[in-house]
Specification:
This is UDP-3-O-(3-hydroxymyristoyl)glucosamine N-acyltransferase. It is a single chain. The protein has four helices and 38 strands. The chain is of the alpha/beta class. The chain folds into three domains: 87 residues, MurE/MurF, N-terminal domain (Udp-n-acetylmuramoylalanyl-d-glutamate--2,6- Diaminopimelate Ligase, Chain: A, domain 1); 197 residues, Hexapeptide repeat proteins (UDP N-Acetylglucosamine Acyltransferase, domain 1), CATH 2.160.10; 31 residues. The strands form six sheets. Strands 8-11-14-17-20-25-28-31-34-37 form a ten-stranded parallel β-sheet, with no helix packed on it. β21 and β22 form a beta hairpin. It is flat, with a radius of gyration of 26 Å. It starts with a strand and ends with a helix.
Length: 341
């Protein structure tokens, strides 16, 4: 269990300490579950009332919220949620995916391993692979021929990286993900599907995080490209030749068709489906379960789909939608009669 003096934590977070700095903090917890040896945070003033019953040893909050605090120690900051993220990183006890090089790992003699590399049990590292300094490859991973992985990148167990893939520095790939599988490329030859070999690769930038069981296909001719600072949640599918701009966030279950181009600083809500061969501009937000069929050229928030309704209301709504064409024609007929006087 990690532990740190509250005064030391305040110094690392550049926070203003109020109260006893000698308290030993052993973890971060929510306001309703925190105990006397843990620290919590208040990021929304609507929950000030919970401070009265909170049993945490210390709390992170803003100066305006401080008068409502009954906890004996506090760290005063301007952005509590960002501070929470930073202190969670300081207090993190997640183990590394691997330590040292397991005897059962199969490493080709041509592979180049940087300093302080760790490789887990039963992992296969093929010909010409380059692993940067401090990379950690978990158990049962497969790293295909001539793949390059940058410094300080971590792969959890059972990640598959195909051949000639490029992955940058400080990346994190969760278990079960597949990078560089074939894109869905076929030609129809008189009713029979002719497979088209996928000759491109996947290029992933620095500080990218990819969730569990996500698949990123290699390009057909050009490359599939994931920009710097992109975060991708679990169970997403990114088809061949997709390009995702820097610092875009993609929630779980998103499906992207081939040759889609997404700009920088976008947010794609969970379970959304995005058509291929089009562009989405920078700073676009797509809310969850949306179907994006056309390009987006203006930054903003976009939504589609019907939210959950009681069944009777939903059936009436769908019935209206099914008849929207008839209603539109009737409306046009009425407009013509009115306009013609």
């Amino acid at each position: 269990m990690a532990s740190i003096l509250l005064a030391d934590l305040a110094q690392q977070l550049n926070a203003e300490l109020r109260g006893d700095g000698s308290i030993v903090i052993t973890g971060v917890a929510s306001m309703h579950s925190a105990k006397s040896h843990e620290i919590t945070f208040l990021s929304n003033s609507r929950y000030r009332s919970e401070l009265a019953t909170c049993k945490a040893g210390a709390v992170v909050l803003t100066e305006p919220d401080l008068p409502f605090c009954t906890i004996s120690a506090a760290l005063v900051v301007s952005t509590p949620y960002i501070t929470y993220a930073l202190m969670a990183k300081i207090m993190n006890t997640t183990p590394d995916p691997a330590k040292d090089i397991a005897p059962s790992a199969v490493i080709d003699e041509t592979a180049q391993l940087g300093n302080n590399v760790s490789i887990g049990a039963n992992t296969v590292i093929e010909e010409g692979v380059v692993l940067g300094d401090n990379t950690i490859i978990g158990a049962c991973c497969f790293i295909g021929k001539f793949t390059k992985i940058g410094d300080n990148t971590r792969l959890w167990a059972s990640v598959t990286i195909y051949h000639k893939i490029q992955i940058g520095k400080h990346c994190l790939i969760q278990s079960g993900s597949v990078i560089g599988s074939d894109g869905f490329g076929y030609a129809n030859d008189q009713g029979e599907w002719l497979k088209i070999p996928q000759l491109g690769t996947v290029r992933i930038g620095d500080y990218v995080e990819i969730g569990a069981c996500t698949t990123i296909d290699r390009g057909a001719l050009d490359d599939t490209i994931i920009g710097n600072g992109v975060i991708i949640d679990n169970q997403c599918h990114i088809a061949h030749n997709v390009v995702i701009g820097n610092n875009t966030a993609i929630a779980g279950g998103v499906i992207m068709a081939g040759s889609l181009k997404i700009g920088c600083y976008c947010q794609i809500g969970g379970a959304s489906v995005l058509n291929g061969h089009m562009e989405i501009c920078d700073k676009t937000v797509v809310t969850g379960m949306s179907m994006v069929m056309r390009p987006i050229t203006k930054p903003g928030i976009y939504s589609s789909g019907i939210p959950l309704l009681p069944n009777k209301i939903w059936r009436k709504t769908v019935a209206l939608l099914m008849n929207i064409d008839k209603i539109n024609k009737r409306l046009k007929t009425i407009e013509k009669k009115v306009n013609n006087g």
